């Protein structure tokens, strides 16, 4: 998909996410906004998955390790035809709903259940290893949060991925610098991520993670890097798109009130309008 | 002649045989291929073996990832580490995501004897049984172990399988090993005491039944290798046909076979149920044989408990 079209779509999907959260009575809105462009670029331009190939052994695999950003995943999966947006809005978080507050693989397009942090990368190491052993060319992707990198299991998997030279594996860190208690640097320092991943034997690409163009280029570069797994450190803005919530830890999980909702939607519309006007 | 083949060896032999034609089988270890008796598998089929290093959480999640891509994953690690350190990985990546992973807990129970509580797994049945969509199996001898692994190769659901470290006396023979998946095996029928045992407690339970019969006490023995799903029908049949029920397990007193049997019997045909198990305390130092004798988990101890239970019913 053309990058300009993706940028326009991003503002529509942000509105969808906020509406899903409003309908469900709450959600991880801050992380949804920081991770959306990563998911959008992946699903539209890089993953070879469609609703009709969810069982194809050659499909690319994606696991949302920061599963709390599920509202962003639902919005993207709906836009790609896997899910029905109207149905999501009607039933998200409701009694008996399949649209749980974290990904579950009973829904089409979702490979693995997640929600507890530090699981996505190890599972993806297994998926990438299966491709290598079977001589298949599919690629494997996961997206983690930056606070998630405090989980030891992430580093067990980082070690194994380079040990087995899984160049078909690409991990993204949604580096929005905030977690539920505040700044990542105050909670547990993360600022040496480039060195840490490099020391574990990974190819490291650091980009502006709010930029669709930069993300698209990074995913393309990762595909062509041999013998090492790639991590994309996506430097993002938590709550991206509305000054009301940008860079505010209190918006990690939040239900906007009506006034906030109207303001956020207006901010998104203004950003889209600005894009349309060139 | 005493059997010298441990149940873990039977797992390797079964997997080796199957892997000759089934290229989807993959075995993972956490620096545990030797203690799991899987070195021969690793050497014979290196393309179907994955070494994860001493990283049990990664072991289980990677197995789940492989399984989600069509592999039949068998992840082997000491039961003490596999079932507690990797507990959440078993819960989410295996059970919740419903992946075709068999977790093989080696050196289970007090196999590691004098190495102490860090290396004992007296909580594994309780821990694994509490996870929805996780099955729990404790085979009693090498022949049943082989049959169980063959059955697990034919299905696609997650399971936990616990075996001990040392060879145990045979319960069955190569030609006479009746096995039906998720159905207990009736080893003896008795009208006084129903002894229900699992894993490597089955053989001493059978010996105890012989001692009891010599004393004029009619003792039945049920090999409940399938702790979850528990064979309720077999439990109830044995309980209904006897005056008291004695369960025997190499496990803590809570949340294991005894708890499950008592739950079923209490619901449907109340009988006095005694649970013979390890204590709710760090286990005394010694070889597993010494430990079993100390806690009355050998033939003489089981027979004594059964006779006392019957006398007080």
UniProtKB/TrEMBL annotation, chain A:
Give the Gene3D superfamilies listed for this entry.
3.40.50.970
Q: Enumerate the PROSITE patterns for this protein.
A: TRANSKETOLASE_1 (PS00801)
Identify the cofactor(s). thiamine diphosphate
Q: Where is the Transketolase N-terminal domain positioned along the sequence?
A: 18-254
Q: Has the keyword Transferase been applied to this entry? A: yes
Which GO molecular function annotations are given, in alphabetical order? metal ion binding; transferase activity
Q: Which Pfam families match?
A: Transketolase_N
Asked if the record carries the keyword Metal-binding, the reply is yes
Q: Which UniProt keywords apply?
A: Metal-binding, Thiamine pyrophosphate, Transferase
What is stated as this protein's family in its record? Belongs to the transketolase family.
- This chain's protein is named Transketolase
Please tell me the species this chain comes from. Faecalibacterium gallinarum
* Source taxonomy: Bacteria, Bacillati, Bacillota, Clostridia, Eubacteriales
TrEMBL record, chain B:
Question: Keyword Nucleotide-binding: yes or no?
Answer: no
The chain positions of domain Transketolase-like pyrimidine-binding read: 5-171
Q: Name one Pfam family in it.
A: Transket_pyr
Report the SUPFAM superfamilies cross-referenced here.
Answer: Thiamin diphosphate-binding fold (THDP-binding) (SSF52518), TK C-terminal domain-like (SSF52922)
User: Could you say which cofactors this protein requires?
Assistant: thiamine diphosphate
Q: Does the keyword DNA repair apply?
A: no
The record's keywords, sorted A to Z, are: Thiamine pyrophosphate
For this chain, the family text in UniProt reads: Belongs to the transketolase family.
List the PANTHER family hit by this protein, alphabetically. Answer: PYRUVATE DEHYDROGENASE E1 COMPONENT (PTHR43825), TRANSKETOLASE-LIKE PYRIMIDINE-BINDING DOMAIN-CONTAINING PROTEIN (PTHR43825:SF1)
- Name of the protein in question: Transketolase
Species, as recorded:
Faecalibacterium gallinarum
- Taxonomic classification: Bacteria, Bacillati, Bacillota, Clostridia, Eubacteriales
């Amino acid at each position: 998909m053309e990058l300009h079209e993706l940028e326009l779509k991003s503002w529509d999907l942000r509105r969808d996410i906020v509406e899903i959260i409003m309908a469900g009575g709450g959600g991880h809105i801050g992380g949804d906004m920081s991770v959306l462009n990563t998911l959008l670029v992946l699903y539209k331009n890089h993953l070879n998955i469609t609703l009709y190939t969810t069982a194809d052994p050659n499909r690319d695999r994606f696991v949302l390790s920061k599963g709390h950003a599920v509202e962003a995943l639902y919005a993207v999966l709906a836009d790609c035809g896997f899910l029905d947006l109207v149905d999501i809005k009607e039933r998200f978080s409701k009694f008996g709903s399949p649209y749980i507050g974290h990904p579950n693989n009973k829904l089409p397009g979702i490979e693995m259940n997640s929600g507890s942090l530090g699981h996505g990368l190890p599972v993806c190491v297994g998926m990438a290893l299966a491709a290598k052993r079977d001589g298949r060319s599919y690629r494997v992707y996961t997206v983690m949060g930056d606070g998630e990198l405090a989980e030891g299991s992430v580093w067990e998997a980082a070690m194994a991925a380079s040990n087995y030279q899984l160049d078909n594996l690409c991990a993204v860190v949604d580096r929005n610098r905030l977690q539920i208690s505040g700044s990542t640097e105050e909670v547990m320092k993360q600022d040496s991520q480039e060195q840490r991943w490099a020391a574990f034997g990974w190819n490291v690409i650091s980009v502006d993670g709010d930029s669709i163009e930069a993300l698209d280029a990074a995913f393309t570069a990762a595909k062509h890097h041999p013998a090492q797994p790639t991590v994309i450190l996506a430097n993002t803005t938590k709550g991206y798109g509305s000054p009301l919530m940008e860079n505010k830890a209190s918006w990690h999980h939040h239900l906007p009130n009506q006034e906030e909702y109207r303001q956020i939607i207006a901010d998104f519309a203004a950003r889209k309008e600005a894009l349309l006007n060139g | 002649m005493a059997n010298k083949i441990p149940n873990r060896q039977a797992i390797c032999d079964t997997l080796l045989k199957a892997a000759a034609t089934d290229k989807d089988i993959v075995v993972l270890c956490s620096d545990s291929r030797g203690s799991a008796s899987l070195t021969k598998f690793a050497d014979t089929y290196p393309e179907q073996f994955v070494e994860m290093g001493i990283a049990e959480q990664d072991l289980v999640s990677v197995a789940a990832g492989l399984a989600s891509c069509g592999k039949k994953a068998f992840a082997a690690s000491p039961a003490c580490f596999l079932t507690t350190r990797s507990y959440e990985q078993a819960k989410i990546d295996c059970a919740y995501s419903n992946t075709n992973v068999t977790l093989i807990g080696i050196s289970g129970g007090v196999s590691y004897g004098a190495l102490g509580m860090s290396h004992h797994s007296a909580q594994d049945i309780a821990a694994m049984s509490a996870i929805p969509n996780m099955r729990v199996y404790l085979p009693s001898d090498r022949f049943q172990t082989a049959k169980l692994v063959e059955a697990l190769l034919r299905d696609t659901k997650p399971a936990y399988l616990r075996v001990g470290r040392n060879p145990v006396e045979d319960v069955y023979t190569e030609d006479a090993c009746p096995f039906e998946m998720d159905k207990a095996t009736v080893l003896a029928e008795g009208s006084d005491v129903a002894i229900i045992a699992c894993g490597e407690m089955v053989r001493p339970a059978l010996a105890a039944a012989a001692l009891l019969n010599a004393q004029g006490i009619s003792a039945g023995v049920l090999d409940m290798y399938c702790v979850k799903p528990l064979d309720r029908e077999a439990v109830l049949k044995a309980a209904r046909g006897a005056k008291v029920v004695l369960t025997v397990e190499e496990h803590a007193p809570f949340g294991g076979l005894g708890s499950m049997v008592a739950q079923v019997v209490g619901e449907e045909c109340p009988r006095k149920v005694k649970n013979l198990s390890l204590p709710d305390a760090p286990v005394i130092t010694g070889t597993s044989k010494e430990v079993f004798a100390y806690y009355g988990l050998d033939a003489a101890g089981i027979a004594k408990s059964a006779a006392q239970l019957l006398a007080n019913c």
